[in-house]
Every structure is written in C-alpha cells, then in structure tokens.
Amino acid sequence: DLLLQxxxxxxxxxxxxxxxxxxxxxxxGKELLILAxxxxxxxxLVHVKFGERVPWDQTTAGxxxxxxxxxxxxxxxxxxxxxxxxxxxxxxxxIAERSSLHPGVRTxxxxxxxxxxxxxxxxxxxxxxxxxxxxxxxxxxxxxxxARISEAMGFAPA
Length: 158
Fold this sequence. Notes:
Distance between the termini: 24 Å
Radius of gyration: 15 Å
Structural class: alpha+beta
Largest sheet: 6 strands, antiparallel
Helix content: 25-40%
Order of helices and strands: HEEEHHHEEEH
Strand order of the largest sheet: 3-2-1-6-5-4
Strand content: 25-35%
C-alpha cells in the first residue's frame, strides 16, 4: 500500500528524532484503524498494536480525522454533527492529550493529507505529569513528517 510505503521512513525518522513511538491510522467506518507504526528506540516505549480498531471518539487521532471531515460525511459515517470540540481541533490542525483508554499514556496526532482524504500520524509516549503534553517543536517535527508522507504519495501540500 502506497500510504504504508510512503510513511515508513518518515515515521522511522520521527521516532528517532523524538525517541517516541509513532503510528499511522485512518477512519474505517466508525473505528480508528492503526495501519502501521514504528517503536521508540530505547528500552522503554509505548507499543502500538497494528491492526487495532478503536471507536473513533475514544482516540485523539480518531477525533482529529472526524474534525477534518466534511459535515455531511461526518454525519453519515459517524452519526455526529459539528461540535465545538471538533471545530476547535480542525482550527488548530492537531490534537494532544492524555489517553482516556490507557492511563499513563499521552498522544499527539497531526493530519496527513492524502489524494483522497486524510490519515493521522500519531506519536505516543509515557506520560510524565510534570511535563507539558507536547512542545511546539514536537508539533512542528510531526507536521514535517506528515508533509513528507503526503509528498511520498504524490500529494504536494499548498
């Protein structure tokens, strides 16, 4: 698959740079589907299970992808309208938060523009409560990796 081929090296580079695990995901119906990932280098990491399916609204990446959908598609596919939270996520263009499914884990997700829609590039980390969720430098590194994936698929962002 072109997305997996195009994502492999940018995700490896991002994992090396941030020392964190990364993943690529899409929405499949009402679920977030983890397509691929790279483990964090080093002895302590958050493992992302490939092929895992999670309800879209229980994940940062799922809510990011929902926020980027056209309102009519979101209503048909997910059964929800445009909420204040989804508007905020779409306006910011990324999301970061502590996991409600997995205590002690935090996730950041940025969009990957595809020729026909969106995927999410996520970074997962063990949460240290005394740290900010993510810095602007980390968000910028994730956006750069997402742009590389889009470009590898033949989509040149404006």
